[in-house]
Design brief:
Chain A: Residues 181-285 form the RNA 3'-terminal phosphate cyclase insert domain. Chain A: Belongs to the RNA 3'-terminal cyclase family. Type 2 subfamily. The complex is a heterodimer. Chain A has eight helices and 18 strands. By secondary structure, chain A is α+β, with helices and mostly antiparallel strands. In chain A, helix 1 packs parallel to helix 8 (320-333), helix 5 packs parallel to helix 6 and helix 7 runs parallel beside helix 8 (320-333). The two termini of chain A are 29 Å apart. By secondary structure, chain B is an alpha+beta fold. Helices cover 41% and strands 15% of the residues of chain B. Chain B contains 40 helices and 37 strands. In chain B, helix 12 runs antiparallel to helix 15. Chain B is extended, with a radius of gyration of 50 Å. The chains are: A alpha+beta, B alpha+beta. Chains A and B meet through strand 1, helix 1, helix 6, helix 8 and strand 17 of A and strand 12, helix 28, strand 18, helix 29 and helix 34 of B.
Chain lengths: 372, 1312
């Protein structure tokens, strides 16, 4: 019995394809991976990602050609369990964690993953952000309860890494449909200013500058300073800030900024970083929506995997990653989202236009979970 | 109107009348009081026993909770599909007869041969599909999965047959549909008593199988080959009011019971290779849940397929539209059964006949052709149903009268113009395909056929246009033919827009739009992702062609609307682009420019704020062009993009005021557009001819308008629609309306393809958050900002005040009142509630009253809400909350896509259950078509995510108690699981106490065991059944086992026991050297420490391998071994599950042999067939026991010992006895005759003597016995006497004693 499959080209949106493939059971063939590049084929971080998927699943078939430009991926069943993965240093743990967030509720035995590597970098959403935004988002979908936890044991900054993150997630058979159309109003702003292998004073300087800007809007701001020492501080110095705005309806919007890695780019002033990060948060608030811009695809995926009921969510402007994700969802699940624009009213001061996405879930059920 | 003031009635306050009234009132009150028994007799209702009360309470609670089911979201469609009524039973019980009778009962029509599903309208809200189930177990299994109601026919004169029970068990496994038994052949009973008894007996047996009280119908007898009308009517009534419960599998999977099949394969391809794979088109009502295009389906009996194309058609059997009347009209009693010949198509063994009413209409229908008669009636009904459709057909043919009359003679298969009404338009297309060699009509006529289906309303006004269109369509190019051709070369690979509309939909003229209203046919064009180069390129091509065909017709109709340039360009389009593709694709030079024009327009319309076209289209175009180039050069270059965006945004902000106007413009029939866009539209169109996708611009555009996509940026299109062909690099990545970035998959493909995979959405142009106005733009996002009207704290507070303003301070007794108006309200309310008598009205104006009333109602509602919240909260359980939630979700589900066009809705939701759909399935084995038999049901079962894969399945299995044999591990078994029937090799195993899964050789008799197979992934909890063979009829109960899927991977390892045997060859005390168990030292090393045991029960351990002989090892035991002991090591060996998945392809078998599918044979069958007999193990055979005689050595006593022994114990020196010498042997005595006589006499005498002696002895013995008896008697007498005497003596002694005692006491008394 030949199962269905899809063929793609290029290494972009690599994770989306493999994740959706794993969830739907359709095979995926990705061709021309950096075929015209100087350094053709899959890179180390992608290989590491494939290895992580292999650890989480059972019976997966992966074929890569000699040059690494063609990947064939036939997914097995999601298994979960205790997984320990040494993430590649090229990408931060967030890169891998995002995928695990998408897969974790649908595995056989609850996932307990320990990921080692770079926890915060300038490219991927950091672990702090995911902890502050993705975890509460998952709760909307009924994925809360015992064991949904994301813990940062050690912080690792690029290029040395050395961080450690512990992620556990309970298993669900089905996902609840959501109706998130009202983001509510921001009632508090929280954040974490972290610094490793630099002066602990850095964090305080960041906090001050960030507060300066945010105080214009709301007084309830608390930015936690997190200075890790010794083995918990990883191998490279660095500092950064993650800000999260929480609304009355339980929406979390976040922004983050990380200092330049050691030896790359000009050194950053913590004051600048704090200020810029606060501005980024304001930008994020301007975009608005019920889902943080980094978590758009996560929310869309869970909506797709819901029961055969209507799910609605108000998002900010769609990122190109999200748009591509929508297309991929259509490829794999044959599900299209109804996308409506909500223009801001004339004199409203509630940021830019929003996007209301609606879909009927695929009626997905976790087939890995054992029937007792 | 002036109302006269009447004198009011004065109530008597005193006097006899008032007294009487008072008395009566009191009496009534008393009576009411008395009626309440609780009050009258409170003691009887007091608590007698707390325990008892608790128990009753518990019991009521138990009963209450027992009724609860897990609440589910109600997903039943508003217009449900027809109910599937499956009629089952062994042969010759009257299945066809009852279907025929029921159909006659419902529709007053007679049906000849019942082949395939028959759909009828049975009532105002219900339709039924009757399916007859043959006696084949394959059919029974398939139909049990789709049945809503089962009519189980039982021949009462015979009793239950095995098939009945088999079917019941199949139903039990696959979800239990409603089952109604029907007893037939009751007229064969002569005796009423036996009849009654039989009925009772059968009823009770039926009840034990289904449920107590299951309905069993009696059909008492036949009248003229039919059942009695009254009884059939009763049965029909039962069916039409029956309620159904949702079955898990059916509600979670979409499925279609196909009632029509067509072969779409190119005849040429078939001619070249008769065995080529076919493209097949299946029709039927969609049931279950939503089915999406391009999903995988399983056809039981055929295999797995991917749907290549799917569309919905107008309902061939629609429910009556208005529900005014009580009963159905004759017109509304529809019947649809294409496979049975109703609906114009008759399936025969080797051909499909289409019934042509047309020219033969006038001829009286002969008796033996009831089907035709039906067709006639159906013609009538169909005309009424969608007269429009038929009309268009007629006009088509009447216009092309010459054509038909001529070609009728050439190609005999052309249908007359009148019959066309009967048929489904798609069917016609198929027919025509075969007929018209040039295939000219197909494009056009098909198109308008479908269109006419789509729009049923408001069609009349467009009739002329229609006809024109049709003409044009006829003269149009043979586009359809290509499509039908299947393998005929397709259009060039290209990206097809996700929706039939390209982005140029905005360039529609007003007239066109009106014209094309309701005609859009976009649904068929399945959105195909451009960025995913999937295998279905060919499909795209076909879709495209379809579209183009339709577009032509529409474009052809444009001359009517005289809109100048645009129209002209459009008129030009059909000829050019359709007739000659090459010319088009060779392209005009202005192509890129034109495209830019399009995209820029798009951008503008999307960005909604930009109304700037008026002043400078050209400029804009150029700008955009530049941008595009920039982007092409380097897409990732953010700076330039940012610039761009900033520009846009500025425009945006400045032109905000205009936006709403613009919006209006776009939604409205685009007058403004024309004005603005003429300049760019024309080139656009000219170049459009160059591109395939532009062929159907007009149509796509109309579709867009119909869907009423608001002028707001059409995100949907930007996300899902791929607009430009891959070759064209003239793209721009711009930010639209500050909303999001256009990221078309094909643009800058090379760069994007390998770009960085990152989910972070970094803003490209950060606003200047230092400026006050920018900060102001998000001010209200915070709790500190301004709130919405309805949520503002101040307003809420005020509202509360208004509502709950009055309150009484209980402590002080002070009464606070709300506003004056509020008080009035209260007054009003009070006065309302009082009797009419006490009307004292203030004349208020009507509207005011109205307002007040509304206010009151509102107030009441809120009060009630509050009250509910306060008092019902305790009652509201988790269950209620859950139910409420589900209810809300169901409402939302219904409401969300309710007012959307079906074409559109289908894309979001998928095809709804209840729709009549057409599914095109490519690559079907040719046997499916060549061996097609309408009597066998064709089911398309939709498969969920990853249900199309194969893997390991773990299941709980139990051999059916009625199956006569146990099942052997590794014997192939045919399973019915999910939609599928397949053969697989199960391994049976059972879990030991220590969690080990031990392989079983056979299934246990009356116990569950686990089974692991290699089979299709099916969700856990799905039931399955197993049969050993599906061939023919066998003796006994065919269902071998039933069970449920537990797990979907091979997470347990099945092991079987392995005993390794070795022999000791050296024994030292408790240590022994063992050989023969292993072959190498490595093996031994692996088993070091393993426990051993000998046959005699001595336990031990493997220690270490020995160097001298490979495989030998040293072992220690708890006791000394004997050399004769056998040592064994008990271990477990993992077993692999054989990977056999062999779908039962029973539908592909030749006609008449469909029930003879054989797969892999079991070992037993193989041996039987090949005549192989098992050679038994020679060691296990019974042999005669041969025991060698034992020889013992003579006892040897040493001479020393001999000397010491006493003589008695000394071994005697005995000579061996030799043979007796002859002289010592005594001679035999031979008597003389005389001596003989003497001897005889002596013997006689001695006999007599002996006898006498014996008698005397016995006499003596008897006498002695007598004597002994007597003696005994005497002894007894004596003893008795002695006893008496002793008694007497003792009594006397006792008396004396007493006396003495008494006297002594007396004496003592006297003494004292």
């Amino acid at each position: 019995m030949a199962s269905q499959g899809l063929t793609y080209e290029g290494c972009n949106f690599f994770r989306q394809r493999l994740i959706l493939s794993t969830l739907t059971g359709k095979w995926v063939k990705i061709k021309n991976i950096r075929s015209s590049d100087d350094n053709p084929g899959l890179q180390d971080f992608e290989a590491s990602f494939i290895r992580l998927l292999d650890k989480v699943t059972n019976g997966t078939r992966i074929e890569i050609n000699q040059t690494g430009t063609v990947l064939f991926y036939q997914p097995g069943l999601l298994y979960g369990g205790t997984v320990e993965h040494d993430c590649n240093m090229q990408r931060s743990v967030g890169y891998y964690l995002e995928a695990l967030l998408m897969l974790a509720p649908f595995v056989k035995s609850p996932l307990r993953a320990t990921l080692m590597g770079v926890t915060n970098d300038q490219r991927d959403p950091s672990v702090d952000t995911l902890k502050a935004t993705s975890i509460p988002l998952m709760k909307h979908f009924g994925l809360d309860g015992e064991g949904l936890e994301l813990k940062i044991a050690k912080r690792g900054m690029p290029p040395g890494g050395g961080g450690e993150v512990f992620f556990t997630c309970p298993v669900r058979r089905t996902v609840r449909p959501i109706q998130l159309t009202d983001p509510g109003k921001i009632k508090r702003i929280r954040g974490t200013a972290y610094s490793v292998r630099v002066s602990p004073q850095m964090a305080n300087r960041i906090v001050d500058s960030a507060r300066n800007i945010l105080n214009k809007f709301i007084p309830d701001i608390y930015i936690h300073t997190d200075h890790m020492k010794g083995t918990n501080a990883g191998k490279s110095p660095g500092f950064g800030l993650t800000l999260v705005a929480e609304t009355t309806n339980g929406t979390f919007l976040s922004a983050e900024l990380v200092s330049n890695p050691q030896g790359q780019g000009s050194p950053m002033l913590p004051e600048d970083l704090g200020r810029n990060c606060a501005k980024l948060l304001l930008e994020e608030i301007y975009r608005g929506g019920c889902v943080d811009s980094t978590n758009q695809s996560l929310a869309l995926l869970y909506m797709t995997l819901g029961q055969q009921d209507v799910s609605k969510a108000l998002l900010g402007p769609l990122s190109s990653y999200t748009i591509e994700f929508l297309r991929h969802i259509r490829d794999f699940f044959q599900i299209m989202f109804k996308i409506e624009t909500q223009m801001p009213e004339e004199d409203s001061r509630r940021g830019g236009s929003k996007v209301l996405v609606t879909c009927v879930g695929a009626g997905f059920a976790n087939i890995s979970k054992t029937l007792k | 109107m002036e109302t006269k003031e009447h004198k009011r009635h004065q109530h008597k306050q005193s006097g006899p009348k008032a007294e009487k009234k008072k008395r009566r009132k009191q009496q009534e009150k008393g009576a009411a009081e008395n009626k309440d028994v609780r009050k009258r007799n409170p003691k009887a209702f007091g608590v007698q026993s707390a325990m008892r009360m608790a128990r009753t309470f518990h019991r009521t609670q138990d009963l209450k909770t027992k009724k609860h089911h897990i609440p589910l979201v109600d997903r039943t469609p508003l217009e449900p599909p027809p109910i599937v009524v499956v009629v089952v039973g062994p042969p010759r019980v009257g299945k066809s007869t009852i279907i025929r009778c029921l159909i006659k009962n419902y529709t007053r029509q007679k049906l000849g041969d019942i082949s395939g599903p028959v759909t009828i309208v049975s009532g105002k809200k219900r339709r039924l599909t009757f399916v007859e189930c043959g006696n084949d177990i394959n059919t029974m299994i398939d139909l049990a999965k789709v049945a809503d109601l089962v009519l189980m026919l039982i021949d009462a004169s015979f009793g239950f047959e095995m098939e009945t029970f088999e079917f019941l068990n199949i139903c039990q496994v696959h979800g239990f549909p409603r089952i109604m038994g029907v007893l037939t052949h009751l007229d064969s009973f002569r005796n009423t008593k036996t009849l009654r008894k039989t009925k009772k007996h059968l009823k009770h047996r039926f009840w034990t199988e289904v449920y107590q009280g299951a309905k069993l119908f009696y059909l008492s007898g036949m009248v003229h080959g039919e059942y009695q009308t009254q009884e059939v009517r009763n049965l029909g009534r039962f069916i039409s009011v029956m309620k159904f419960r949702p079955l898990v599998w059916q509600t979670s999977h979409p499925y279609v019971l196909a009632d029509r099949m067509e072969d779409l394969t190119d005849p040429e391809a078939v001619r070249v290779d008769p065995k080529c794979n076919r493209t097949v088109c299946l029709y039927g009502y969609l049931r279950g849940t939503y089915l999406k295009n391009k999903t995988q389906v399983h056809i039981p009996g055929v295999g797995d397929f991917a749907v290549s194309d799917m569309s919905f058609l107008p309902d061939p059997c629609p429910l009556p539209e208005e529900q005014k009347k009580r009963a159905l009209d004759q017109k509304e009693r529809l019947l649809y059964a294409p496979m049975a010949g109703v609906g114009g198509v008759v399936y025969d063994k080797d051909a499909v006949y289409i019934d042509l009413g047309g020219s033969h209409m006038e001829q009286p229908q002969g008796e033996p052709r009831p089907a035709t008669e039906l067709v006639q009636s159906l013609i009538g009904t169909h005309t009424t149903l969608d007269a429009k459709m038929a009309e268009s057909k007629v006009s088509l043919f009447s216009d092309g009268a010459a054509l038909t009359s001529e070609e009728m003679l050439q190609g005999g298969e052309i249908q007359g113009p009148t019959e066309s009404r009967v048929w489904d338009p798609v069917a016609q297309r198929e027919r025509r395909k075969a007929v018209f060699s040039d295939g000219e009509e197909e494009g056009g006529s098909e198109e308008d056929g479908e269109e006419s289906d789509e729009d049923e309303g408001g069609r009349e006004s467009e009739e002329e246009e229609e006809t024109e269109e049709v003409q044009e369509g006829q003269s149009g190019p043979p586009v359809k033919k290509q499509r039908v051709g299947g393998t005929v070369e397709r259009g060039p690979l290209q990206e097809v827009p996700a929706f039939a509309d390209s982005e140029d939909d905005l360039e529609m003229s007003e007239e066109e739009e009106e014209e094309e209203e309701g005609r859009e046919r976009a649904g068929g064009v399945a959105a195909d992702s451009g960025h995913c180069s999937e295998e279905d390129m060919s499909d795209d091509g076909s879709d495209d062609e379809e579209d183009s065909g339709s577009s032509e017709t529409e474009e052809a109709s444009t001359p009517k609307g005289t809109t100048g340039k645009i129209d002209r360009s459009k008129v030009k389009a059909p000829e050019e682009c359709a007739e000659d593709d090459e010319e088009d694709s060779s392209g005009a030079e202005e192509k890129p420019v034109a495209l830019v024009g399009i995209s820029s327009r798009m951008k503008k319309s999307v960005a909604k704020g930009m109304d700037a076209e008026d002043d400078g289209d050209e400029d804009d175009d150029e700008d955009d062009d530049d941008d595009d180039e920039d982007d092409d050069d380097d897409e990732d270059d953010d700076d330039e993009d940012d610039d761009d965006d900033d520009d846009d945004e500025e425009e945006f902000t400045t032109l905000k005021g205009v936006s709403s106007e613009e919006k209006r413009k776009i939604t409205a029939p685009l007058q403004g557009m024309e004005e603005e866009g003429e300049g760019e539209e024309e080139p656009c169109f000219e170049s459009a001819g160059a591109l395939k996708w532009k062929e159907d611009l007009a149509q796509k555009a109309s579709a867009v308008f119909l869907r009423q996509q608001q002028a707001a940026p059409n995100l949907r299109k930007l996300v899902y629609g791929t607009v430009v062909q891959e070759e064209e690099e003239a793209d721009e990545e711009e930010e639209l309306g500050g909303l999001f970035r256009v990221s078309r998959p094909e643009k800058g493909r090379k760069q994007r393809m390998d770009a960085l995979d990152c989910s972070r959405f970094t803003p490209d142009g950060v606003r200047d958050w230092d400026r006050e106005e920018v900060l102001d733009s998000i001010r209200d996002c915070f709790v500190t900002g301004q709130w919405e009207e309805d949520k503002d704290a101040a307003t809420l507070l005020k509202e509360d005040e208004e509502l709950y303003g009055d309150f009484e301070d209980l402590e002080t007794g002070e009464v606070h009142k709300g506003h004056a108006g509020q008080q009035e309200d209260c007054k009003e309310e009070e006065s309302e509630e009082e009797d009419d008598e006490e009307e004292e009205e203030v004349l208020v104006k009507e509207d005011e009253e109205e307002k007040l009333k509304k206010k009151r109602v509102e107030k009441k509602r809120r009060l009630k809400e509050r009250f509910d919240l306060e008092y019902d909260d305790g009652d509201a359980t988790y269950f209620d909350d859950l139910k409420e939630e589900m209810q809300k979700q169901a409402e939302l589900n219904r409401a969300e896509f309710e007012d959307m066009e079906d074409q559109m809705r289908v894309q979001y939701e998928g095809f709804r259950p209840g729709m009549y759909v057409r599914l095109e399935i490519p690559a079907v084995p040719c046997e499916f078509v060549t061996n097609f038999d309408p009597h066998y049901p064709i089911i398309l079962g939709g498969l969920g995510a990853s249900e199309g894969n194969v893997g390991y399945l773990q299941m709980r299995l139990k051999k059916h108690r009625w199956h006569q044999r146990i099942l052997k591990t590794r014997d192939p078994l045919i399973l019915s699981l999910g939609w599928r029937r397949f053969q697989s090799i199960p391994l049976y195993h059972i879990e030991d106490h220590n969690g080990r899964h031990r392989l079983l050789k056979y299934t246990p008799l009356h116990m569950h065991c686990s089974a692991t197979i290699w089979g299709p992934i099916t969700p856990q909890g799905t039931g399955f059944l197993a049969v050993q063979s599906v061939t023919g009829v066998q003796a006994g109960f065919r269902i071998a086992a039933t069970g449920v899927v537990l797990d979907l991977d091979k997470s347990v390892t099945i092991v079987k026991k392995l005993k390794l045997i070795g022999y000791p060859y050296k024994i030292y005390k408790n240590t022994a050297f063992v050989k023969g168990m292993f072959n190498t030292n490595l093996e031994v090393a692996k088993f070091e420490g393993a426990s051993l045991r000998t046959v005699s029960g001595i336990r031990g351990q493997v220690k270490k391998a020995l160097r001298e002989s490979p495989g030998a090892f040293r072992a220690t035991f708890e006791d000394r071994l004997l050399m004769s002991d056998i040592v064994f090591l008990r271990s477990w060996f993992p077993v692999t599950v054989p990977q056999l998945y062999n779908p039962v392809t029973s539908l592909l078998l030749s006609l008449g042999n469909k029930d003879s599918w054989t797969g892999m044979r079991t070992l037993g069958q193989l041996k039987r067939d090949l005549g192989v007999r098992n050679q038994p193990d020679r060691d296990s055979l019974y042999k005669p026991v041969l025991r060698a005689p034992r020889h013992f050595h003579p006892l040897h006593v040493p001479p020393q010992l001999q000397k010491a022994l006493p003589f008695k114990s000394k071994p005697k020196q005995e000579q061996r006895k030799g043979a007796v010498p002859r002289d010592l042997r005594r001679p035999a005595v031979i008597r003389e005759p005389h001596e003989h006589k003497v001897a005889a006499l002596l013997t006689a005498l001695s006999t007599v003597h002996n006898y006498k002696r014996k008698r005397a002895h016995s006499q003596q013995h008897g006498k002695h016995k007598e004597f002994l008896r007597q003696k005994e008697r005497e002894e007894e007498e004596k003893l008795k006497r002695q006893k008496e005497a002793r008694k007497k003596m003792y009594r006397m002694m006792g008396q004396q004693e007493q006396k003495r005692e008494r006297s002594s006491l007396k004496g003592a008394a006297q003494d004292s």
